[in-house]
């Protein structure tokens, strides 16, 4: 069989809980495809790696990540490592950088109509929201030179034209895919749309961002409409009228992308349904390596109780199948299974949701239900 090599890094707190469900889903896919194999190697990252090895990610784990086809990542960090140097979080940053996973796709979608109830935004405003934040993942303030003294600290926020341009190509590709997927009953804009969010009014790196983005769109990306928005007002618009960004890609820097993608969690009402893919290439241009992880963190406040929503991790598996393995049919089936489990109308009156979505199901019940529905979908 064709073998895909996956490095599995569950991490800390809820990480192992949600990873267990994601791996069940991967098992179901494997069972329906005798021609493929998912070879998995599981290791430590984050706080648990600090405890065992004194470092959030060992060189051996980094090398395994580099030599695997994809990394499935849970979540890291927690109060017990407050003040650790290096931090658990730096392990994740090192992996992103080492794998050159420069394009972080973070979809925001109200998955089923009845989930509008979980959103704090009025139903008529939030229903049908669907866009993707494309976050620059290997530069900006996260990776510039740092100086840290007791009473003064700084982070250098640098971008090169090259970094902005390569992300712009991804943002355009994502916008094209979203545009092509607009359902027939919805109005389709003439061109795919990219919204670029920056602080060109204040930051020199923001002005470079805007110039470099504008230049490459004028030179090479003529089929996609480009709009510029200041990142602060972007945050406001996303909350006030999220559907205004429907079927578009939000092209933005590392720090702004981190914040705007958590605003996505405010739109859905929970981070528990938001997956992400950090890619080392352009979607649609062949398989690329990637790190697949939820947008959310290790949720220490609810860990160890079976309360966490595994949907973000399960949808991250779907993204892995789509972008790293080109298994589009299986990726779509996982997404459909999640939708059916979350929406009673689709699932014979059964609605299986964790507490963050107003339900009472346990993490493992959601995972099991997704697996059951998925088996049926993949059998046909
Ligand atoms: P968080 O995302 O872990 O949690 C924020 C809130 O959302 C909490 O109330 C949590 O219970 C809830 N929540 C998050 N995911 C959920 C899920 N799947 N189901 C139900 N509820 C969910 O953010 P935080 O509390 O600010 O950070 C905790 C730790 O996680 C920190 O150490 C932070 O650095 C780390 N972190 C790690 C990652 C990652 O590993 N990729 C991402 C973000 C934050
Ligand atoms: C995320 C997280 C990470 C980030 C942390 C844990 C390094 O918040 O993936 O959104 O800031 O990128
Ligand atoms: Mn974040």
Can you offer a commentary on this structure?
Helix content is 41%, strand content 18%. The longest helix is centred in the middle third of the chain and has 20 residues, at 161-180. Strand 6 (146-148) and strand 7 (153-155) form a beta hairpin. The protein has 12 helices and 12 strands. The protein has helices spanning 14-32, 47-53, 59-67, 88-98, 123-126, 161-180, 204-220, 231-240, 254-268, 311-323, 328-342, 363-379; strands at 2-11, 36-42, 70-75, 103-109, 130-136, 146-148, 153-155, 193-198, 225-230, 248-252, 275-279, 290-294. A 10-stranded mixed sheet has the order 2-1-3-12-11-4-5-10-8-9, with helices on both faces. It is globular and about 50 Å long. It has 380 residues and is of the alpha/beta class. It folds into 2 domains: 1-107 and 284-380, Isopropylmalate Dehydrogenase; 120-268, Isopropylmalate Dehydrogenase, CATH 3.40.718. Helix 10 runs antiparallel to helix 11. The structure holds nicotinamide-adenine-dinucleotide (NAD), 3-isopropylmalic acid and manganese (II) ion.
């Amino acid at each position: 069989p064709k073998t895909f090599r996956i490095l599995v890094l569950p991490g800390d707190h809820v990480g192992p809980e949600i990873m267990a469900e994601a791996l069940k889903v991967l098992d179901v896919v494997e069972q329906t495809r005798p021609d493929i194999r998912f070879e998995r190697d599981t290791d430590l990252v984050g706080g648990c790696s600090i405890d065992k090895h004194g470092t959030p990610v060992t060189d051996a784990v980094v090398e395994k990540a580099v030599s695997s086809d994809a990394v499935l990542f849970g979540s890291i960090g927690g109060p017990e490592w407050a003040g650790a140097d290096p931090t658990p979080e730096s392990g994740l940053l090192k992996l992103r950088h080492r794998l050159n996973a420069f394009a972080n796709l973070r979809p925001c979608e109200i998955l089923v109509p009845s989930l509008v109830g979980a959103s704090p935004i009025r139903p008529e405003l939030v229903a049908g929201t669907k866009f993707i934040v494309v976050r620059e993942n290997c530069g900006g303030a996260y990776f510039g030179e740092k100086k840290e003294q007791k009473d003064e600290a700084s982070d250098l926020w640098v971008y090169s034209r090259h970094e902005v341009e390569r992300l712009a190509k991804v943002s355009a590709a994502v916008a094209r895919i979203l545009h092509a997927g607009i359902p027939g009953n919805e109005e389709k804009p003439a061109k795919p749309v990219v919204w670029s969010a920056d602080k060109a009014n204040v930051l020199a790196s923001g002005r470079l961002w805007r110039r470099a983005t504008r230049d490459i769109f004028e030179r090479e990306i003529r089929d996609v409409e480009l709009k510029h928005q200041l990142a602060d007002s972007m945050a406001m618009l996303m909350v006030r009228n999220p559907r205004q960004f429907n079927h578009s890609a939000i092209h933005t820097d590392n720090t702004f992308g981190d914040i705007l993608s958590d605003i996505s969690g405010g739109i859905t009402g929970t981070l528990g349904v938001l997956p992400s893919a950090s890619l080392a290439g352009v979607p649609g241009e062949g398989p690329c390596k990637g790190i697949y992880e939820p947008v959310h963190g290790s949720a220490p406040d609810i860990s160890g109780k079976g309360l966490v929503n595994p949907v973000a991790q399960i949808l991250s598996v779907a993204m892995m199948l789509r972008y790293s393995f080109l298994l589009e049919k299986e990726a779509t089936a996982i997404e459909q299974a999640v939708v059916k489990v979350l929406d009673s109308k689709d699932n014979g009156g059964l609605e299986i949701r964790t507490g963050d979505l107003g339900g009472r199901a346990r993490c493992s019940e959601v995972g099991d239900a997704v697996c059951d529905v998925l088996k049926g979908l993949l059998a046909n």
